[in-house]
Write a structure and sequence with these properties.
By secondary structure, the protein is an alpha/beta fold. The chain contains 11 helices and 14 strands.
Amino acid sequence: MQDNKVAVVILNWNGRSFLEKFLPAVIKFSSGAQIIVADNQSSDDSVVFLQNNYPQVSIIINPSNDGFSKGYNLALRQVKAEYYILLNSDVEVTENWIEPIIQFMDSDPKIAACQPKILDYKHRSKFEYAGAAGGFIDKYGYPFCRGRIFNILEEDRGQYDSAMEVFWATGACMFVRAEAFWKVNGFDDDYFAHMEEIDVCWRMKNIGYTIFVEPKSVVYHVGGGTLNKLSPRKTFLNFRNNLITLTKNSAAPFFAFKILYRMILDCIAAFKFLFEGHGAHFIAVIKAHGSYYAHLDSTLKKRKQMKEMPDFRDATTGVYRKNIVYLHFVKAKKFYSQLN
């Protein structure tokens, strides 16, 4: 692949309909950037569609469908650029979506990743689940966003239009500095999908980089394009990968207690699924814990390797010091602005 300052890389799996709908705007509003579609062995006609209609778009064909993490790692090793923009195929970009973030990241070499403001494609005045206006985690590893706590999505009234440091940037539209990304060896291939962006952001923070949101850039995300949010498979991946992420990256003080407490909360969540009639999701949580234990040895090895890196420090900026589960479900804190 040719050298570019910016490469927009869209990972595709059977997403011909999304490419047909959203790729024209990416081409129109990405002047100067190389546009690449990395295909994860789609069984639809995505590749033929691109070849016939968009010869200006570069195509990388991965050898198999190994999910988001490995799919991007395989593709990005073939891309030469200072910045990657990892873009979901179901995202509508807008005019001037690239320039504000690249200018912002150029201003500080310690910014490893940055995301735009993510709004809901179907409800355009609301923030979208996967990222909203920047991601955070609480002390037990539960993710939430400026504009989204659990399933409560806020209306965008301009209340979160300031750029600010966050804990993680969404994989739906992540601008990432290639040098920082590869310093931590990219995404963890074992994740397949979900939580991998939180993990890689945490690892980059742990060696001294920062993560930001720049809401001057705005995109609209459909969401659930590959795995519907009601899918037990998604439940499995979210619960398993969240535990793995917490184990790999969290600071040492009270580490064992955090994991034990998360186990208890996950069990409560599992029985909540069961009592609400979602037996498949109950089973998914149980399987997630089984898979977590099966991977525990390799997870602890990755934790050790991370802590042995020369620039390692325990990153805490963006970690919410309270329990977001308790505040949301017991104290009825629905919005980011209600948190201290």
